[in-house]
Amino acid sequence: MLSNSLVDLDRRHLVHPVSSYRGHEARGVRVLRSAHGARVVDAEGRELIDGFAGLWCVNAGYGQDSIVEAATEQLRKLPYATGYFDLGSEPAIRLAAELAERAPGDLNRVYFTLGGSDAVDSTIRFVRYYWHAKGAPERDQFISVAQGYHGSTAGGAGLTALPAFHEGFGLPYDWQHKISSHDLYRNPNAHDPEAVIAASVEELEAKIAGIGAERVAAFYVEPIQGSGGVLVPPAGWIKAMRDVCTKHGVLFVADEVITGFGRTGPLFACDDEGIVPDMMTVAKGLTSGYAPMGAVFLSDGVYDVIADGAGPKAVGHGFTYSAHPVSAAVGREVLALYEGGLLDNGRAMGARLQAGLKDLADHPLVGDVRGRGMLAALELVTDKAAKTPLPAEVQPATRLFDRAWEAGLVLRAFPTGVFGYAPPLCSTADDIDGIVERTRTVLDLTL
Ligand code: PLP
């Protein structure tokens, strides 16, 4: 039994991320005690299937002994090394090289961060520095996509296009602009992917023209919008956006914090579409949540402009924990596990997940089933033809999350009435079938 004092201590002292503080105090914390594979165990000893890999991050699954060993060995050998003063550590250098070898195109330079938000924030600084070094400091305007998520730092949260991250924070800044999402479910052109692509191209072109092409610094996009509700663009959409950016000399930044590391099938989702961004952010699956780490990939061209621009001067950007050796050792082992079978298993289980969820499409509450690989969503509606969202008394995300929890399933319940799925790549067929069966139970309870 979980001691009440722990719940009280949490209520009194721990500030939780992205939550209603008062709502959380009233509800109290749910403490997880242990985990293995794709299963988590709560404080009462109840086992649940983790259909969301923590926060779309534990791609390798829980209880991977070899990751624990790699971290322990590194902790004993060298728990910390700064990257300042020309210093470094072997795991960080090797991980950077291993990632560069696998990244799309010439994304050969890797800057390590602590997670996704500071990776995005670092790109904002690198973009600004790049244009300054190119002699075009007036290129200081940024464009991102509605319903996109790019983290929660002061800069990145303005590129994020979800109202809760702006209201009360004075965001977005006036240099942060948006174009509409492709959102295929609610897009009037959904029946015609070419029309969706053409409309987005037109909008991005108009946005760039409106700002003035010579003022636009960069365009940010997730290959699949995650926190916006797992919104998958039509094939060719990302490539078309990339082409518009290339045409106008605008830097193209792909945010692969969720989609990276096997989530959609290949190591990086950019590989699905054969595009090479100028910069790419990753986190989550990079270390599978066993230690905090993110990264920014810079193309050779972008890196060289920054390096030559700075010359003998320091590029004033860095964190105490950049390229942390323990996180890097974890990252190297995680990468070995992906390539040692987890990517293959993820692809097989991803197909099973997508097929299983498609079987739920005939449920009266399911308006849309979408996703790719081990990334999926159901959109709940009360009227399929009118695509009417669930009424307010049913919709609160906490209520849907509670129902899933009672059914033995951890999923993401978005406030828009969307269920999100991102199971560990190590999931078994039983895990995946369990996710689908338990989802049906939740849907029946919600009817
Ligand atoms: N970018 C994307 C696409 C994300 O989904 C997230 C987090 O979910 C972030 C950035 C921020 O990453 P973090 O939560 O590690 O700071």
UniProtKB/TrEMBL annotation:
It comes from the Bacteria. GO terms for molecular function: pyridoxal phosphate binding; transaminase activity. Its cofactor is pyridoxal 5'-phosphate. Keywords: Aminotransferase, Pyridoxal phosphate, Transferase. The keyword Transferase applies. Signal peptide: none annotated. CDD domains: OAT_like. GO terms for cellular component: cytosol. The keyword Phosphoprotein does not apply. Pfam families: Aminotran_3. NCBIfam families: PRK05965.1. Belongs to the class-III pyridoxal-phosphate-dependent aminotransferase family. This is Adenosylmethionine-8-amino-7-oxononanoate aminotransferase. The lineage of its organism: Bacteria, Pseudomonadati, Pseudomonadota, Alphaproteobacteria, Rhodobacterales.
